[in-house]
Write a structure and sequence with these properties.
This protein has 326 residues and is of the alpha+beta class. Strands 6-7-1-10 form a 4-stranded mixed sheet. Strands 5-4-8-9 form a 4-stranded antiparallel sheet, with no helix packed on it. The chain has a two-stranded antiparallel ribbon with strand order 2-3. A hairpin with a 7-residue loop joins strand 2 and strand 3. It is globular and about 60 Å long.
């Protein structure tokens, strides 16, 4: 699927597309969408235990989002965490340290990021960094909610997406260029835990509107606009058919309809026996949003390095992907 997000420049199809209406051209995809496509593919490989394939896709996700200029490094925390988790399971502990270190740089108050860095560092026999990461984890986590330092606490990891993703609109300054706008999705607080027991918060790690609006791509869009305008000008001058072939300039407002608004990650302590876990969402008022309630059955906790990873979506965008659980 990811190969369909790009078009080979210089091909006949691309040459024809340059003079077409932008909304009718092959869809190229925006940087954050390509990043998400690679991340989802990497996640699929991770779930199958194909760690080398997952490593390649997570690396490609970083490159899709990085931009062409030096220093435009990705700040997609979820991607770094998944890449670190893949390295941890593949016993590439130094690589896992690098990924989790980036996570803690981006989200300094996220306790699970420090815990993951502690585990990777201990397995890499880097006691100094492990101790420092554990100290930060202790400071951020109540004693009764902590996972064991040796990674033995059985748990399940959850990756939860919520809300509508960013939308395209004409730029306020240059109308022929597109800009990103935040979708009108109510902010949600997400928590998970065994049915009838206290819940663990699943904090938001990434805002996809922020990712879309800061990922660049504007210079590339402007360059394509210049090339397209020049090509259309030449074609319009052709006798008889020129004006019919070349469409007028317009802004391309296409984007993923199924893109999430927020990405949440949490580790839920669970026994090794089959257990039901419920996902509860609350709005600004603090009241549960009943339509977003989900229950996941027959989940078994495993040590952190082997913990199952559950992917879920909540409304208003849940219908875009399957969210039924046995």
């Amino acid at each position: 699927a990811t190969t369909n997000l790009s078009v080979e420049l210089g091909s006949v199809g691309t040459g024809i597309a340059i003079i077409q209406a932008e909304s009718k051209r092959p869809y190229r995809g925006h940087p954050h969408e390509k990043m998400l496509a690679r991340t989802y593919l990497g996640l699929a490989y991770l779930q199958q235990g194909k760690h080398e394939d997952a490593r390649i896709e997570f690396a490609k996700a970083r490159e899709e989002h990085r931009g062409k200029k030096a220093g435009q490094d990705t700040d997609f925390t979820t991607g770094h965490f998944l890449e670190g988790l893949n390295s941890l399971r593949d016993q590439r502990y130094n690589d896992a340290q690098v990924s989790f270190r980036k996570v803690t740089e981006l989200k300094q108050e996220w306790a699970l990021g420090w815990y993951a860095l502690c585990r990777a560092s201990e397995l890499a026999r880097d006691e100094s960094e492990a101790s420092g990461a554990w100290t930060r984890y202790e400071a951020l986590t109540p004693a009764e909610a902590r996972l064991a330092r040796d990674g033995s606490t059985p748990c399940v990891l959850f990756l939860v997406e919520s809300g509508w993703g960013p939308v395209r609109k004409p730029d306020e300054v240059i109308e022929e260029l597109g800009a990103w706008g935040a979708a009108e999705s109510p902010p949600l607080h997400i928590a998970l835990g065994p049915v009838g027991q206290p819940k663990v918060d699943a904090p938001s790690l990434d805002d996809l509107y922020f990712q879309a609006s800061t990922a660049g791509g504007t210079s590339g869009e402007a360059a394509r606009k210049v090339v397209s305008s020049a090509a259309k000008g030449l074609v319009r001058n052709l006798p008889f058919v020129g004006r019919h072939l070349a469409s007028k300039n317009e802004v391309d407002l296409r984007c993923w309809a199924s893109s999430p608004g927020m990405m949440h990650v949490a580790a839920i302590p669970l026994p090794a026996q089959p257990t039901s876990v419920e996902l509860i969402c609350t709005g600004k008022s603090g009241r549960p949003v009943g339509a977003n309630h989900q229950v996941f059955h027959y989940l078994r906790g495993r040590p952190f390095g082997e913990a199952p990873l559950v992917y879920a979506r909540v409304l208003p965008n849940a219908g875009a992907r399957a969210t039924l659980h046995g």
